Each structure stands twice: as C-alpha cells, then as structure tokens.
Amino acid sequence: MDKRSCPLSEVYGLLEPGPVLLLTTAHKGKSNVMAMSWHTMMEFEPPLVGCVVSGHDFSFAALKATRQCVLNIPTAELKDKVVACGNSSGRSVDKFALVGLTPLPARTVGAPLIAECYASLECRVIDTRLMNRYNFFVLEVQQAWIDPACKNPRTLHHRGRGAFMVAGETIKLPSKMK
Description:
Layout: H1 11-15, E1 21-27, E2 30-36, E3 39-43, E4 48-52, H2 58-66, E5 68-73, H3 79-86, H4 95-99, E6 103-104, E7 113-114, E8 119-127, H5 131-134, E9 136-146, E10 155-160, E11 163-167
Antiparallel strand pairs: 1-2, 1-5, 3-4, 4-9, 5-8, 6-7, 8-9, 10-11
C-alpha cells in the first residue's frame, strides 16, 4: 500500500464519531434544535455519551443552564432538514418552524423529542469538568425511544466540509459480546 500525507485539517473526516444528531434544548420558554456530530459513547450501562457543543452555539447556554437535552437521531431522509438546522441559529429563528420538525414532550427532561427522528435519547448532564476548557459535556441517557417501524435506519455521518456519508448496511461478525 502506498500512503501519502494527509492534511491535519482532514483528520476529523477520517474519525467521524457516529451519526449526525439533532440536539434539542429548552430554556426560558424557548426550544431549540441544532445539528451535532461531535459525540461519543462512553459507557454501556448506564448509557453515557460525551459531546462537544461550541460555546458559540445558541444551545450551549441552554445545555449549561438546564443540564438536560434530547439527542435525536435522524435518518438520511431528513438530510435537508438536518443541514438547515446546522446552517441557521436559534438566536434569530425558530428552527422547528423553519425546517418543519415536530417537537414532542419528553418524559424525563424539559427539552423536546423530534417526532420525525427514528430514535430519541433523553439526557441529563452528569459531568461538566471538561466544559470550560473543551465545551465537552458528559450526558447520561435517562430514557430512550425508538420507532419500531424503522428496521434498518440509514443514518447521516458528517465527513467535514459539507460532505456526508450514509450508513445503513448491517453485517454480523463473530463477537464474544452478546
């Protein structure tokens, strides 16, 4: 194999952590939704998710103040709505109305679920020690919702600079974990 140097600015596209999420928050009577792709699973049970939310994002202040959110997982069919959420700010517009997403009440947190997403994870912030330095929050999933009709979701994965990959093929390989 003949390898060549890769610019460091392109490393993110090599290591993208998982599907693009729509993070919802609610604070001071206003709900918001933002596209997010910087997240990682940290523990199986209870499910812990680490995520980075830029201090410049409107959702950062709400997540910091309320310490709760919902991680909604859209399918590739919602790509235009996902991109619209990522290209607008909740400071100046109601993104739910702008892109045509339906907020639903959550069971354990004040932030809404998104009806159109195939899965939603109600979360509480349990650790902010890396928030001031890296804008990194550790979330514990309190309640998980999934659409049973969506058998093999095709999810979006951000590769950087406006490029996305669609995942959806599931393969089984030998594993010691059950």
